[in-house]
Amino acid sequence: MVPLRVAVVAFVTLILQVSLVSQIEVLGARGNIILLFAIVAGLESDPERGAVAGFAAGLAFDLFLDTPAGLSALTLALVGYGVGSAKELVLRSSWVITLVLVASASILGTLLYAGLAVVVGVTVDAGSLPAIVGVIAAVSALLQKPMRWALRWAFGRDSRARSRDRSVFR
Amino acid sequence: MPKSRRFGRSRFTLILLILASLTLLTLDYRDTGPVQGIRSAAGTVFSPFRAVGDTVATPFRNGWSGIFGYDDLEDENDELRREIDELKGQEIEDAAAAEENDELRRMADLPVSADIPRVTAEVVSAPLTDFDSTVEINKGSGDGIGRGMAVITDAGLVGRVTRVSGGRSRIVVITDPDFTGLGVRLVEGGDVGVATGGTDGALRVEDGIEADTQVERGDEVVTSGYEISDYPGNIPVGSVLSVGRTTDQTEQTLVIEPSADLDALRFVAVLLCDQDCG
């Protein structure tokens, strides 16, 4: 049941990204809730499931982009794994730390995507990167709460048990 | 499960996912394997869900544009009023010029692009990410559209079809930084060069324009229409913004402003032919 629920959340996220978030420009940039999905998947589960969820969502998104297939999948697998590891190694639960973690992961994830894009031959306008990174981090921070609710439902009891643990550091 | 074993397993999974991604990247980079087919199929399967999503999202998109685009709309309105006043004055002059133009066309027996079959489509989606500059139109393979076909507006060349599914296609615009291979010709001098996109919304011609050719700001540039070109000839591409020199001073470089307003595309026409339309 868990994979099915996660797939449902990923599918709805993909539709929202394509139909709404991608169509709204702020400061010449667009939010990326597929990246947010991977971040929160890592946050609400573990590194392995974060990586798999990020890979699957990224792969689905890749099918709609003109950038090389596999680029989003690779980036989001690394992001999901990284966030899951960071959470397991350092912190458990605190809304401020979660917010900072989501924003930081959005920034690093976007820069990682841009870096990998350059490596595979996509031209990236470095001048517009600060606006892109800023908008994506802001949108992720703004929407992290509903995404966490959705993925807590998707991952079920494990996720809820983890979220009740209030200690910040191991 | 012990923590070390769990980490070992998760690392193993991550390595598998990285390898899978790299395999996909390689296949797509070489344009081999099933990637294009899967993309096309995914576009077709996803299309009904996308339509529902678009219907639900449209009020939110319009609301956003209404709130944050009001000043722009006011400015645009003022600009349009000024243009209408100017156009009224030009109307009579234009009618005479059009008649003269028609006469010249008949006399010179110029190739008429109206003979080329085309399909009109509406632009329904902006680029999906900040690293992707393709736009989507609401016509696809069912309407005869194929990969590589030229896309134009009444103002000039827009780009080419890069991906097609049953009911939708994606268009890469000529100013995309990775857009290559656009053969262009100076209307005045007749020199032919190859234009590429940039990151500033303009096109660049880095070779092919002789050093002694007279080029001025505002000179018109059209598609070359050569046999090896992917586009029919004489489609307006843009006008020269600035002229420079190559580092070895043997040729001129051009920066071209596109004729078509690529930031405000609404309706476009896809020319239903490949290299054979010239």
Keywords:
heterodimer; A: 170 residues; mainly alpha; 7 helices; globular; B: 278 residues; alpha+beta; six-stranded antiparallel β-barrel; 36% helix
Account of the protein in words:
The complex is a heterodimer of chains A (170) and B (278). The longest helix of chain A has 27 residues, at 129-155. Chain A has seven helices and no strands. In chain A, helix 2 (33-44) runs parallel beside helix 4. The model of chain A is unreliable at 163-170 (pLDDT under 50). Chain A is globular, with a radius of gyration of 15 Å. With 170 residues, chain A is an all-alpha fold. Chain B is an alpha+beta fold. Helices cover 36% and strands 27% of the residues of chain B. Chain B is built from three helices and twelve strands, in the order H-H-H-E-E-E-E-E-E-E-E-E-E-E-E. Chain B has helices at 3-29, 35-68, 70-108; strands spanning 118-125, 134-137, 150-153, 156-164, 169-173, 182-186, 192-197, 203-210, 220-223, 236-245, 251-258, 267-271. In chain B, the strands form two sheets. Chain B has a six-stranded antiparallel beta barrel. In chain B, strand 7 (192-197) and strand 8 (203-210) form a beta hairpin. The longest helix of chain B is centred in the first third of the chain and has 39 residues, at 70-108. Chain B is globular, with a radius of gyration of 23 Å. The model of chain B is unreliable at 106-112 (pLDDT under 50). At the A-B interface, helix 1, helix 3, helix 4 and helix 5 of A face helix 1 and helix 2 of B.
